[in-house]
């Protein structure tokens, strides 16, 4: 399927969902508190000129970017260390498997009391949640590097560092990028969830919480949720495009094998 066909089908699907939501809200099949889809989309469009909301979006993205960058650097470095040092990998295996399943949202109260500012709390949670997909992808990618390629360089007298830089990291890079893409989506969900729970008025989550005060505005809340979804989709599309451009050779090989 071509990219144009995917876009057309995706557009038709979105339009269909919007039409059904509009019909349900106006025909009275659902609770009257559900606003029409057209009203929600209009509010979402109005947010482009809402300085307060755009400031909230900037606050959310700032914490998300910082946490994701820190997680990428740390997780890749730890993944390399564990993959190249068997005894260290064995010593930390139980710890990694124990900490990995802990939900990041369960640590929100701990983050609030542990850091002096809300931004630091958000960054710490994004960092924690984003580390695991990147770390796991790095570990498995480095373990699956073609041993023949490494042995070939070793036979020519290359050391461990040279093999890592010339063979292991280039081979693992596409899978690490996939881990970063997964972590980007997870981190965005976590930071908005933190803002909703913290209730301090910061970020998209804080703005959504404020819309429900004094009787509530479901249309504003859903419009803000649409913005959060759009940000997630745009981030994913951007990372996929960057991944395909940076690792074109990997994309071609994957499509050929498929």
TrEMBL record:
Residues that span the membrane, as ranges: 63-82, 102-119, 125-142, 163-192, 220-242
ABC transmembrane type-1 domain location: 57-243
Cellular-component GO terms for this entry: plasma membrane
Record keyword Transport present: yes
The UniProt record lists the keyword Glycosyltransferase: no
Alphabetical keyword list: Cell membrane, Membrane, Transmembrane, Transmembrane helix, Transport
Family to which this protein belongs: Belongs to the binding-protein-dependent transport system permease family.
Protein name: Nitrate ABC transporter permease
Organism: Planotetraspora mira
């Amino acid at each position: 399927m071509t990219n144009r066909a995917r876009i057309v089908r995706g557009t038709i699907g979105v339009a269909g969902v919007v039409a059904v939501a509009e019909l349900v809200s106006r025909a009275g099949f659902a609770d009257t508190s559900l606003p029409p889809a057209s009203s929600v989309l209009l509010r979402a469009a109005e947010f482009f000129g809402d300085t307060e909301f755009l400031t909230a979006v900037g606050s959310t993205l700032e914490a998300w970017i910082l946490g994701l960058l820190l997680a990428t650097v740390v997780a890749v470095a730890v993944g390399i260390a564990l993959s190249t040092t068997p005894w260290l990998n064995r010593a930390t295996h139980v710890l990694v498997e124990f900490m990995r399943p802990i939900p990041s949202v369960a640590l929100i109260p701990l983050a609030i009391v542990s850091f002096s500012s809300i931004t630091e709390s958000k960054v710490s949670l994004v960092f924690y949640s984003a580390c695991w997909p990147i770390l796991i992808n790095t570990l498995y990618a480095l373990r699956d590097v073609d041993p023949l390629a490494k042995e070939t360089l070793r036979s020519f007298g290359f050391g461990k560092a040279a093999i890592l830089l010339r063979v292991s990291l280039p081979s693992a890079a596409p899978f690490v990028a996939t881990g970063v893409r997964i972590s980007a989506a997870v981190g965005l969900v976590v930071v908005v969830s933190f803002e909703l729970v913290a209730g301090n008025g910061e970020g998209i989550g804080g703005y959504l919480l404020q819309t429900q005060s004094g009787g509530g505005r479901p249309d504003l809340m859903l419009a803000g949720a649409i913005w959060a979804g759009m940000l997630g989709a745009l981030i994913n599309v951007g990372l996929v495009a960057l991944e395909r451009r940076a690792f074109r050779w990997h994309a071609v090989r994957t499509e050929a094998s498929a």
